[in-house]
Amino acid sequence: MSDIGADPAFEARLREVFAQPPRLDDAVAFAARVDARLGRDWALRRLAIGAAGGLGGVVAASQAFSVDALRAVQALIGSLGGGGAANVGHLSWASPSELTLAAQAGWLAAGALALGATALAARRWAEGL
Amino acid sequence: MQAGSKPLGGLHDVELAGLAALGDRDAFGQLVRRHNEGVRGQLLRMGVDRATADDVAQDAFLIAFSRIADFRGEGAFGGWVKRIAARAYIKRPRRSVRIDRMEEAARARTRDDVHGGESEATDRMDLDRALATLPQAERLCISLCYGAGFSHGEAAEALDLPLGTVKSHIRRGSDRLRQRLAPAAEQGGAHVGHRR
C-alpha cells in the first residue's frame, strides 16, 4: 500500500488516526438493536421450520381425511396383528388398495405429529417475543 | 455470562469470537459494543449518511455472526467487520449510493457528530473535516485502504475500477489530506494515541 511513495510517516499516522473510531452517542443502543435482530432471526428460523413441517402435515392430513380414515386404521391394524408370521407375510401380497390405506394411516399419524411440532414452535416463538 | 472466571468484558476479541462461534450471543454482543463505533465510523468516513451507515453496520454484524467461525484472529476483529461493512455498502443498489447525498451527509456529520477536547479527538476531527473536502472517489479509496485495510488491488476489485485509477485517487487524496492536516501537525497535533 505504501507505493504512493511520498511520506511513509504521514501514511503511518493516517492509519493510526483512521483506527481511532468516532465517539457516537448511541453505541449502546446500536448494540442492543443488533442483539434484538439476532434474536428475531433465531425465532423466525424456528418458526419457519415448524411451519414447513406443519404445512406438510396439513397436506398429508387433508389427503388422509379424504378417504375413509377408519378403513385406513383397520387396514393397518389388520396388517400388523392376527395370524402372526403368515399375516405379516401376507402383507407383501396385500392388495394395492389396502397398502395405500395403511400408508395413508401412517401419513395421518405423521401429519398429527407435524401439526403438534408447529404448535410447539409457535408457542416458543410467542414466548420469545 | 462468563468464560471460566472472567467476565466477558475482560476477554480478548478472539476469545469472545470463539464463544460466539459456539452460539453465545452475549459474547457476540460484547464484540458489537466494542466495535460498532469503529465500523460505523468507517462507513461515515467513506461518506455514507448516518442512517445508511447504521443499517449497513447492522447487516455487517449479522453477517459477521453468521461467519464467526471464519474469524481466527489473524487480524483485528474490528478490522474484519469493517471490511465486511465496506463491501456490503459497495454492493448496495446504485440508487441508494448517491454521491451527492453522501457528500452532503458527510459535511453535516462533520459538524454534528464529532466530539473534541483531546488530542486524539482533535486528530479525528481534523481527519473527518479533511476527508469531507475530498472528492468522493478519492475519499472512498482512501477510506477503504487506510481505514478498512484494503490493498489497492482489493479496492480496485471492490469498486470495479482499474488498479491505476485507484492508485491515482489515493495519491491525489493523500496529497490533499497531507496539505490539510499538516498545519495541525505543526501545532503539536502529532501525538496520536491508540484506542482499543
Q: How would you explain this protein's 3D organization?
A:
- The complex is a heterodimer of chains A (129) and B (196).
- Chain A is an all-alpha fold.
- Helix content of chain A is 80%, strand content 0%.
- Chain A has helices at residues 8-19, 27-65, 69-80, 85-91, 96-128.
- The longest helix of chain A has 39 residues, at 27-65.
- With 196 residues, chain B is mainly α.
- Chain B has helices at residues 13-21, 25-45, 50-66, 77-90, 99-112, 119-132, 136-147, 152-159, 163-189; strands at 2-3, 6-7.
- The longest helix of chain B is centred in the last third of the chain and has 27 residues, at 163-189.
- Residues 111-117 and 188-196 of chain B have low confidence and may be disordered.
- At the A-B interface, helix 1 and helix 2 of A face helix 2, helix 3, helix 6, helix 7 and helix 9 of B.
Indicate the multimeric state: heterodimer
Q: Please tell me how large the radius of gyration of chain B is.
A: 18 Å
Q: Which strand-content bin applies to the residues of chain B?
A: under 5%
- Number of DSSP E strands of chain B: 2
